[in-house]
Amino acid sequence: LDTITPNTSITNQPSNLSNSASATFEFTSTESNSIFQCQLDNSGYSACISPKSYSGLTDGSHTFYVKATDTAGNTDPTPETYTWTVDTISPITTTSPKGGSFTSAQSVTLSCNDGTGSGCNKTYYTTDGTNPTTSSAVYAGPISISATATLKFFSVDKAGNSETEKSETYTINTTTASPDITATPATLSFGNVNIDSSSERIVSVRNDGNANLVIGAITNPSLPFSKVLDNCSGQTLSPSTGCTITIKFSPNSTEAFTSSVNIPSNDPDENPVTIALTGAGTSAGSPDITVLPSLDLSFPNIPVGVTADQTITVMNEGTSDLIISIITSPEVPFDIVAGADNCSNHTLIPDQSCTIKVRFTPAASGTFNSSLIIPSNDPDENLVTVNLSGSATPGTNNPPAKPDLIEPANGVTGMPAILTLKWGISTDADGDPVTYRLYIGTDPGFADVSPIILASAADDDSSAMAMRYSIGIIGLFGIIAVGRLSSNRKRMGLFIIIFIMVTGFIFTSCGSSGGGNGNKNGSDNKSYESYTINLQPNTTYYWKVVADDGEGGVTDSDTYSFTTGQ
Question: Is CATH 1.10.730.10 what the domain over 405-564 is classified as, yes or no?
Fold first, then answer.
């Protein structure tokens, strides 16, 4: 008679801290021809052979159990166990300050965050433009950057998960700040203008320096030139801002004229700037402006985010020079393509033409209208207005990512009646806010199951979370009440309804300090959403989560099942 129990041993297992969602175990018994039973976490024992492999493991702690039974039916009373931790999520590293332009050296701090994972191990970096490796410098404290440089870096956690390389560029400019005046054009040519008529042209002034530009009183030109509009005298221009001056030429005789205007400022090396003025009086007829293809330019049905260009042609069909001043830019989403305005500050001789390219770049759907104005010396069409219209259709919407169900695992048994469901955060490539519809019930097809609507937890406050708990609990108990009422047990049904109302009030009142329903991540660096619910004992439930971006993009998770215990 064999009454000696075998002794089970695990001979091969994953490392104590693993970045793999798979695991393989090898095991043996002190008695040959033994059979084995294995269990992962609380999933229950089942027959197995060595090696035994598992896949699709969730992040966190797991325990493997194995016990041998010999040919006489004696079972090892103390199963061999092994506990290890799975961490498959890479850490995230941020910089302070972020890259940008600076006027002094910067001390840059790298911060690694591994959330609920195994913890950050090391951060590697370079500042010479090369890609960092595990042989590069290890971050130990603030990095001093005194000259323009690109900082590249990545972190590795204790489980060996490596972050994708990141980079930040720091532009250091320690030169002395000073204004820099730019005035265009340097020579303002009016060409031939009929006597007893006039032409206006514009001078643009801009501060291209890195300190304020202070402009003094701009001088007046001599006749027949005159300054009719001055937006610059006495003005202070901050860096990258500008102003304009409008000059008129009104000849009263057929001869050539010259003059100038001086623009004084605090520019250290260009004070003052002199703009030369030239023009000639003539009696050779008059210019005649024509704009093609028409004075109404339409951009129909352009998808959002797509750029559409059209060209305007300006012709001089008169008998004297057509002098075109600076053409005004239309309002967004219309614009004149940079470098494609061949008409502003140009003179067209008779039968000559120039072109302007107009761009329509809608950032949102809808209809848009604007205009651009072409000033010239045409005697009866001095300001030609080109009307712009466009319509934009919605672009392609990307659905949110598939939610990954985390807890409870698929098929587990013995779950508590008060259970927290967890699933991974669903991201949206378009940046749309994601809401979740949680389905849970005893029917795998979710017949007659109304979903629990959950906003992304980052948008919830504690009172909203408490209300969702109460609604979920009230709804679940309501199903029980209706079922019992349908069995003609009216008194019991009435009692349950009263119990439901009291329970709902209690959970609503204390939900803000309760179980963390829908509590996400942003405040505690978790990478999942969660919802706590009351369930019936000894019942098999099916659940899934649907992510909705509110723009027609909907993505379902897999459907999992679990069974509650006593």
Answer: no
